[in-house]
TrEMBL record:
GO annotation, biological process: carnitine biosynthetic process
Domain TauD/TfdA-like as annotated: residue spans: 20-238
Cofactor(s) listed: Fe(2+)
A Pfam family: TauD
Matches recorded under PANTHER family: GAMMA-BUTYROBETAINE HYDROXYLASE-RELATED, OXIDOREDUCTASE AIM17-RELATED
Family per record: Belongs to the gamma-BBH/TMLD family.
The protein, known as: TauD/TfdA-like domain-containing protein
Record-linked InterPro entries: AlphaKG_dependent_hydroxylases (IPR050411), TauD-like_sf (IPR042098), TauD/TfdA-like (IPR003819)
Keyword Transcription regulation part of the UniProt annotation: no
MF-aspect GO terms: dioxygenase activity; metal ion binding
Keywords associated with the record: Dioxygenase, Iron, Metal-binding, Oxidoreductase
Tagged with keyword Cell membrane: no
């Protein structure tokens, strides 16, 4: 059965910060540390987007960006059927980690809407922490297989072997994923891909954005996607490493729930 993303204004309003107000940077960094996601308003131009990104991260230029590191995401009408370039078409995107095929993917991603689509083009976000908890509690064998080292390969010939869930010594977890033609999985993982897809579908959140709105996410926790669209949708994207301290990943829900009990009276 196909799961339709849950549309909720609460996702945007519940994490919203006006980037043009004093103190916004401190509030954004605090929100990213705690929840892995902050939604933004008050970004009037590409120049504003670049200025904000530069305060939050060391922006990393890459293949598709301009020299300043900002990438303009729009339907170029030239990339529709090219593997790895789906973001520059108008079709839907599967939930994924940005630059999953890099040895060290950028920790932060910022996306800002410059011009809304005529129809569709909504952002879709998936909390990897919720997906991980879903699998640990309901499909533990899948969660274990997806954490096996080097059980996945993301990218083309210059891609990188990894795993969907990386477990750190301090019990933190990070997610890395793509599900398109540039993802390959070991025989250990392949039987559990339908289970993973179903868990992702259960936690998909639809987030429409108007011009001047956007979000910053922790690329080790949140997956992002997009619905198909018509019209001249324009977004600005920045990728980079944070200018503030962050833990290795997210604290799994079961560990977080157990912490008060472990602390004692």
């Amino acid at each position: 059965m196909r799961h339709v993303p849950q549309q909720t204004d609460g996702l945007f309003s519940g994490h919203r910060i006006d980037a043009s107000r004093p103190g916004a940077i401190d509030r954004i960094t605090d929100g990213v540390r705690k929840r892995g996601l902050v939604t933004l308003t008050g970004i009037a131009s590409r120049t504003d987007a670049l200025a904000l990104a530069a305060q939050l991260m060391a922006v990393i230029p890459h293949r598709d960006s301009d020299s300043d590191g900002i990438t303009t995401i729009r339907d170029t009408r030239r990339h529709t059927h090219r593997a790895g370039f789906a973001g520059f078409g108008n079709g839907p995107l599967e939930p994924h980690t940005e630059r999953s095929g890099a040895p060290i993917p950028p920790r932060l991603m910022m996306l800002v809407c410059g011009q809304a689509a005529r129809t569709g083009g909504d952002s879709v976000l998936v909390d990897g922490r919720a997906v991980h908890a879903d699998l640990v509690t309901g499909a533990r064998a899948a969660a274990s297989a997806l954490a096996q080292p080097r059980s996945a390969y993301f990218g083309a010939g210059d891609g990188h072997p990894s795993q969907v869930f990386t477990l750190y010594d301090d019990h933190q977890v990070a997610v890395r994923l793509r599900l398109d033609g540039l993802a390959r999985f070991s025989p250990i993982v392949q039987p559990y891909l339908p289970t993973l897809r179903a868990a992702i579908a259960r936690h998909r959140l639809l987030m429409p954005m108007a011009p001047g709105q956007g979000y910053v996410l922790d690329n080790r926790r949140w997956l992002h996607a997009r619905t198909a669209f018509t019209g001249d949708r324009v977004c600005w994207r920045a990728l980079g490493q944070p200018r503030f301290a962050m833990s290795d990943g997210f604290t799994p829900q079961l560990v977080a729930q157990a912490a008060p009990a472990l602390a004692g009276p």
